[in-house]
Amino acid sequence: MNQMIVNPVLTGFHPDPSFIRVGDDYYIATSTFEWFPGVVIHHSKDLIHWHSISRVLTEASQVDLRGNVSSGSIWAPALSYDQGVFYLLYTDVKSRKSVYKDLHNYLIMATDIRGPWSQPVRLNGSGFDPFLFHDKNGTKWLLNMRWDFRKNHSNFSGIIMQEYDQESGKLTGSIHEIYKGTPIGVTEGPQLYQKDGYYYLLTAEGGTGINHMVTMARSHSITGPYETDPDYPIMTTAHDLNYPFQQAGHGSLVETQSGEWYMAHLCTRPIPGTATMNPLGRETAIQRCEWTENGWLRLAHDGKLPALETEAPELPICIFEELPEKDDFDGEMLGFPYQSLRVPFDESWVSLKERPGFLCLRGRESLASLHDQSLIARPIQHFECTATTCLEFKPDSFMQMAGLVLYYDDSDYYYLRVTADEIRGTSLGVVLCKGGNYDEISSMQLSVENWERYYLKVEIHEREFIFYASPDGVGWTAVCTPLDFGTLSDEYGGKLGFTGSFVGLCAQDLDQQAKRAYFDFFEYKALVKP
Prior knowledge:
By secondary structure, the chain is mostly beta strands. It folds into 2 domains: 4-311, Tachylectin-2, Chain A (5 Propeller); 326-528, Jelly Rolls, CATH 2.60.120. The protein is 0% helix and 49% strand. The protein has no helices and 40 strands. The mean pLDDT is 96.
């Protein structure tokens, strides 16, 4: 029996997988939304073991995210390969909470998956989820869903297609509406494949919440008409809200070296007992698929629910070294797994050189800012985990803060911070924001005037977490009662976000004096792995 692919293969915030094979190498690109650098590339040789090898959008000259709304920015990258060139399409979503979206669809290219990538070329703005199809006849086509803002119209008005001229780097010719979708609606995420004389159109439908699903249609002509699979959808969890995986959809296909087919897709793992409390965010799973005699795609294990485990192809096993749990900040630059909000790492606000062995953050704007935050963080990937740091920081007033943060977005976060208090002097406590409502846990605030260092820790146990503090890293004091990890979920409070929760380090100086905070280390430790 072959080895098994254990899902999800990419845990934590890794949504919207775009899946390709180049020779013996498999790659998945995932969305990053407002987190910078933009678009993560993951690599595997066996579909079982994966590691992150590069980030695509690393410079401010490539993309400007400052001011973009939370869960906007970089949506649904589409990775493809043709004749020695990697192509990557992505959407920069400038607004998303009104009837308009203000969508910028870009194309970049590279001859090496690790870059360097070309400067982005803007192609259109009619919708999101762009995909570049390389026809065997040599033509190239841009597909995307079309956004319709008009009253009494479906916002998801169908899948459109236009030819892309490689020589001029522009779209050319007529726009073709090729697929309206099924009665389920919310048709998006188009992916196009050629097989056995057909063009197969894979789409996501039902919205990216609990009704998410994967559907397929086909045509002998690239511009249609497209016939919907009579037994749609291929995969969904909408009919079983108690299943361990939820929101399964946004599929992407590859064919292995030996002709087997696999689909990468996003899913969530809600906190047990809930269907929508998913603080780990949208993750990536892989399913083995088969084609029927009638030429339609099915999950290999039968049924429509995604498998928790699926049979792997017969490929040589390739295991990659895992990232260390503890970072002593002895390197020359920040790499995986850290990300920042909307802006790249820059010596003007984050440095490993100013004080060797320490991460230096210069305080900037508040955690509510959509512009210039001094925050580095990593996705939370486990329901049982701890994160610990050691901080050296001497604030002059309540305008200056630094510490350890659990962050979803500018409206939802929990922050264990050191600041200055007129009564206690230097103090340490928890502030939080839930659904945009700010609060402070003042009853458990500590006076730490005589502490030379501040050891800060958070322990997460499924739905609950607690912050702790210590002057020496040995004797720990709880700085809050158990708090609800579920509030850092994509669907908490009725909102629809896409990023999952992060844990990280940050500093603020609301007086704009760039007060420095020094972090000696950062440790993230999984207590129970999937």
